[in-house]
Amino acid sequence: MNRSSRCIVLVVLAVFALCGGVSVRAKDQISGNETIVAKLHAGKFAEAEVLARKRLAAVERGSGPESVETADVLDLLSEAMRQGGKSGRPEVGEFCERAVRIKEKVLGKEDPGYAASLYQLGSWHYMNGDYGHARPLLEESLRIREKTLSPDHLDVAASLLMLGALRSETGDNVAAKTLVERSLAIRESVEPDGPDVAESLSCLASILVRMGDYAAAEPMYRRAIHIWERAWGSTHAKVGTGWNNLSTLLYATGDYEGALSCKERALQIRIKTLGPNHEMVGWTRANMGMNLAALGRKPAAREQYRQAVEILERRFGRDSPEVGWTLKRLGDTYLGPGQYGQAVPILERAVSNLRAGDGPEHPDVGEAMAALGVARTALGDTATGNVLNRRALAILESRLGRGHPEVGFTLTQYASALMVAGAEEPALEEALQGEDVSRDHLRLTCRTMPERAALAYAASRPAGGRLALSILGSVSRPDGATLARVWDSLIRSRTLVLDEMTSRMRTASEAKDPEMTRLVGNLIVARRRLANLIVSGPGDASAGQYRASVEKARLDDESAERALSARSTAFARDQERGRAGLREVSSSLPPGSALLAYAAAGEGSNRSYVAFVMRAGTSEIFFVPIGSASRVEIMVARWLSAVSAAGRRSSGHGRDPSRAAGDSLAALLWAPVATSVDRARRLFVVGDGAILLVNFAALPAGRDRYLVEDGPVMHYLSSERDLVRPARDVPAGVGLLALGDPAFDQRGSTRGIAQSRGEQETGTAASRDAWNCGDFRDVRFTKLPQTGVEAREVARIWGDPAHTKVLTGTAASERALKAGAPGRRVLHLATHGFFLDGDCDAPSASSRGIGGTSPLSAGTSSRAPNPNPTHLSGLALAGANERAEVGADDEDGILTAEEIASLDLSGTDWAVLSACDTGKGQIQVGEGVLGLRRAFQSAGARTVIMSLWAVDDVSTREWMKTLYEGRVGRKLDTADAVAQADLQVLRARRAQARSTDPFYWAAFVATGDWK
After folding, report:
1. Strands 682-686 and 593-601
2. Are residues 530 and 556 in contact, defined by beta-carbon separation less than 8 angstroms?
């Protein structure tokens, strides 16, 4: 395990069981020891140490240096020093060994007092990373205690806890979890909310974090903090440990702001309880630096690192590896344009310290050497940089394995430096290799993570793919093979988390017999074991032992996958589709079609957009740089704002107010690729970033026309791999479920956020001050009677009364929708939609939504969204205005994206979301829009038809009527049905001299299966 991980893990797992190693005799029978114990419980470790030293001198004089009483005080003294962060001092080990020798001689090897001293000695070895010596001591202590004390004795619980922590450190998290759960059960049986319970909760949560179960770990950490605060106050040392633990979890899930807040509280407590120059304060500052760096706050990060260096230099020495690790992180903050020169001396010292302390083959040495190579290369010394980078990679691959994320990061980091140095071809090669490693690791780890944590990792992983796209944009006339390789890499990297969540839901829905349940469980265990091994690194194992362990875990994982694939057709096909690349995609293009794929390239100020185009039946690839990301995002936002303004302010007649913005956007996004698309009849479009919010059919084409009239039929895909969608492997659903006009408020709405929908297209916009979509508690939904008319009209067109269900009024409830949606072929949901982000557009008087976000609220960020976007978007159903009055376990009338994703919609062909902003959400580059569209896809719906802005009531009814007539009456495929709905509403409005602005006819797009 590298030092960066070790530093964090020590904070999380090391401080356990106050006085758990002090014998009953010492705690309860010897006068004078109680004061020391009280100081330990109060977190005043320095004071406890002073008292213990005085007490030791007195007991040695009174009872003799070889007495049990002396050994008991030695236990207390070593406990005080260990808890006070002085475990690294040899003196502590000498105290522990002396106590063991005394008690072995006086009490014998089967006495619980002897077991207490063994516990202290084992804990000291554990704290110093000497697990080989720690384990037999802790196991023997546990054996004696279980034999001589009752099975539910608190000392047994203490031994179980420390042994569980050790097993976790050595990679056996399954056994560790069992041991700590036993410890927790004993302690809860004695004092359900006692401080010892908090110790076990904290340890168990840390083990769960290592196992990837973040969702279960977080409430345990919070409960531990609450217990400690109630028992000892908010500034106790244990509370500081609790906040630090929680910050580590939040950091792992991408909540960097939340993690920083927790870390700051931990730092304040530790400064107060341990002093400003304590080594634990130094490590906390170093970890704060990592957090601040992740937030892009480099000056603040540097200040924390510098203070940490000063503290650690005083504690460990100027040339120590502990100082070297912190210097390496400090040097990382200077790896940027104009600052590489400042990084070099810092990183040179880091390499020297780490090599002298850890040996030349330690992974930390490889990391520091790689960073130094980056700085040297960027400064123009590519020869030295190349030597350093190759040596660093050899170290990392030897110790950690080729698939370790640090290897991917090193490759990508070096590629960036080569690009700065102008070495474009080798830079592209390094970037693609880095992306391969990083992608494979994401695919592996996200299988064991909850979605939020997986998205956080996907957002923070090394961006080798985006770097490769950026490099490609600067290469003069790249050849076809290079273009194919880069696009293939992009295809394999898109929407990996979405695919995993969808596959997970499909597999879970199949797990209805015991054998399937067993196979799924086996796969989860195998995947988690492999992911944990790769992330945790070799620890104390040799390189050969570690590689053998990883290889065995990989074979176990593959075996579990084969077993499940043999049982589950859906799982097997998901695995096959997940491996699809450019070759499989190109062969899936239907005749007469073309594929247009946009992608976000680069990072920071170098962000841009690029596009690839391929026509069916050819192998030629067109690559088109689009322009800077800031320009694209500004233009998209300007167009969307203009379109929305048409609905809020237009009279419905006259010149389209969004046309000027549309012309500019078309010139930016469409004109550069139009020639490459040539005369394709059908165009599949894959978006990324801000471009995901553009309906290309609505872009102007000439003076008075739109692309829907003169361009190809367009259909949207989440990723290119959607074209390789396998044949249906589950039975198709039956019939239609249409929902509209829910009874939001049985008592009648006294304050609404939108007026009741009417037949008029005009109306005064609701006042922004009348509602605040950032505070959902105050939102009330007004009645939408026309959506009921729409639901019944859709049902009439569908024409199968025996298999059609219409839900309106009180019947349009959350419970009824959850019960009736699975097994339906089509879901038509006409109601208020919402996406909450606190940056809202007021809805028009005839709209179906409550507003949402500024369209590009997350379009420029590669960081995972926070809070969880599945909690921020959803649909309002019957009783929504009564939600504050329902119980915690009752349906509240708000169907969130998270709840939708948990449904089984694997038989659903269409999910039609006839509401405002249902295609909006937080945007994560490479993963798409996180909101309702993603929720329905995760649930298994093959196609989602959704809106990109606040929709008009009358126009929406017209559009939906035309959509279903095309699909049901004319048997059109999805792409043609959507295009014909656009065209017919547009032409009808033009014939009636009404406004043809896209607001009225182009809000809805379809994504997913085009057939």
Report:
1. parallel
2. yes
